[in-house]
Amino acid sequence: MIGRFYFEFEYDGKRIGLWPRNEFFNDRFRAMVMKYQPRKGTEEEQRAFQEFKQVFIADLMAAREDNLFEWRDVALT
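RE: above sequence
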């Protein structure tokens, strides 16, 4: 099973669906997490995974907010 990040929230009488753009939470990200978390793999693989995460977080933090998420209006029920 492959997980996805999806959030819904209501504000000021509107409901919004929000999910990260695939540029960040892509197949490579999902594969790395499934393969090496929690603490799976050799010490060398874990070091490489930690380096991957550090670069990932730096890229994520440097991105403009309008490049991070897709969104849509969701009907209130």
